[in-house]
Fold:
Amino acid sequence: MKQIYNYCIGVLFVFSSTCVTVFSQNDQITQTLISESNCPTTQAIYKTDSIARSEAEIQICRELEKMHKRMRTIHPDYLKVGDSVGIMTVSSPVSQSREKADSLIDIVRSWGLKVRLGENLFKHEDGAFSVSDMERGEELQRMIDNDNLKAIIFYRGGYGAIRTLDYVDFSRLKKHPKWMLGFSDLTTYLSIFCNMNLESIHCAMLNSFSLANPVMDIDTRTTRAALFGEIQRYDVEPNEYNQSGEVEGVIVGGNMSLMAVSHGTPYDLKIGENNILYIEEVDENMNTIDRFMQQLKKSGKLSKVKGMIIGNFVRAKDTGGWDVSIYDLIKTYTQELDIPVLYGLRSGHGKINHALYFGQPVKMIVSPEGSSIIFE
Structure:
């Protein structure tokens, strides 16, 4: 990526030297591009009076800006047919029959991928877990260190990922990145990857894939599409809770319970001014979800984000006399923020779980006519 970036800069300067039209530094196009761009190269080009700027140059600089945004993140290669992936669990053990589990694993093979199963995937030797925390962590480390594996797909969530952190070193992924896929309990890992600027995929795991019609099942289909780099955008229907606006940033977040558990630890999600915060939850009562929102607000995280995506909130129980919907409750917090907020994306726990790229530059457009998430 850096070589391509430098090459394009060289092409731009060669091209510019052949132009005869020179715009003043005060022209409207220049000022707009300088003010909108965070790319030092783009700013330097447009602040130089001696460089001619045609429409072609402007387009090149916009492409350079996109590349500059991508260079801020660690981007694993998208998969292709014939690549190898690992499948394992660091959370709760596999609870389905071996026959059903094998059929779910075969769905991944049907994508044209080679599969390496974790050696502890089907064990039940340590109470609530397949094997000990150390064994699960060391197994994950071996998959991280295996350069032949282009992705690691977690079979299921549940509980236990946080218990493995003492036995895993994720730093190797900075120079040898691979896709890590999961959600729910795996929010713990996804937060760490976001803090590392490593792109990952928030998506359904194998235990929720459909065997009845895997080709049409949205969970299965979008998980595969994300791995192969085929998701370009999601268009979402209008929602009465939306707050309109347009923003560019990177999506971070996940399951609220897991984000709350990590608060105050070295693994706490670091929210920055370039972040679009995504949240989802399942089987929590309204008091607990309000407590999570209070934590996000009082920790200063809500005030930092550029936008929000409100995913699935499933079976939120009103045990405190709130007498409003869960989305009404969340709206009391988002309406205080002068940012775009998208409600209604079906992602997270629930019957439909659209895959999302975490840590990847996106554009989010929210309007009364409908909303879009555009992956760059």
Residues 55-71 form the longest helix (17 residues).
